[in-house]
Design brief:
Blueprint (H helix, E strand, L loop, with lengths): L10 H11 L15 H8 L16 H11 L6 H15 L9 H10 L4 H17 L1 H4 L8 H6 L2 E3 L9 E5 L12 H14 L3 H6 L1 E6 L5 H5 L2 H14 L5 E7 L5 H8 L5 H4 L2 E5 L2 H5 L21 H8 L2 H8 L25 H11 L1
Parallel strand pairs: 2-3, 3-4, 4-5
Antiparallel strand pairs: 1-2
Helix pairs in contact: 1-17, 4-5, 4-6, 5-6, 13-18
Length: about 350
Amino acid sequence: MGERCTAVHGTDCGSLWQSYIHKQPMADQNGHIDADPLLDQVAGVGFPAPPPPIYSCTLTPELVAKAREELQEKPEWRLRDVQALRDMILKDQPNLRTRLDDAFLLRFLRARKFDYDRALQLLMNYHSSRRAWPEVFQDLKPSTVKHVLDLGFLTVLPRPDPQGRYILCLRPGKWKPNDYPFVDNIRAIYLTLEKLIQPEETQVNGIVILVDYTGVGLSQASNPGPLLAKKVVSILQDGFPIRIKAVNIVNEPRIFKGIFAIIKPFLKEKMAERFVLHGSDLSSLHRVIPRSVLPEEYGGVAGQLDMSAWARTLLSAEEEFVVEFCQPDPLEGAALPDSMLFEGEQAEDSYRSLRSQLYYCY
């Protein structure tokens, strides 16, 4: 099989995606890609550019070795493995409207350490989450969450940590229930993850999350509820092809015990162990994220926290998100597995007791 990406499967979104990628910078016969001023602007703040439409491995020798050791990725078998997953999709889910190009399918293989069956299940979960949570995924594009970005709820720090992991910074205290529905924050997070997962380096290195709970009170803590928390956790753990390597919590108030009580039942043991609470002790944070990549607000030396650079990055990608998310239901006509991401309403049963914990902590 050659290096060229295969055509995108599905009539509606496929033709739109092909139209979009044909507008992207193409590689010449020597593998060089024409410069794009917009990508240069994005690269200027440290964010990686999206991959070219024709797959060519962009991993450094060090990352190739890391992928081999941690993800069981063998360069000589990479495209064979992609083709095997593609064949499984076409055989088992012929009606699924999904991208089938090499770069896209590699995300799922890497996230599941090249286990074909688990990668296929992740792909199905990825698409089923759209049907299960339409208020998040309907008309999902950056322009619809501009108010979230303007408020400063989230950003991505421009420089990765020494392990090459980009840092997603969340500041839930910036949001107030009267501002807009909490689900808009989730939409902004999802779009950010979609953008972050594009470069191969993120697929191998994973990401780190930094959550600053400054300003979080009872109204913010009790608003999402366990059902919302379960859906978010389900997507992050089982419905999105990204490796979350650490979740660092800073400036958490006493009420955080109640917040974590809502989240923890839905976390797998491995993920729960990656939550680290630092309180107001920035020296503790600096032991896991060096000051060289942190802004001044968190005791770093990388200048003041800039919320605008990542906002520009997302908003400039409007067209690609329209192609990805503003299309017909990808699962229409597909054979769904027995187990989907979101199961019933049992989380609601414990909500009253958890709310009492929140009020007590507060």
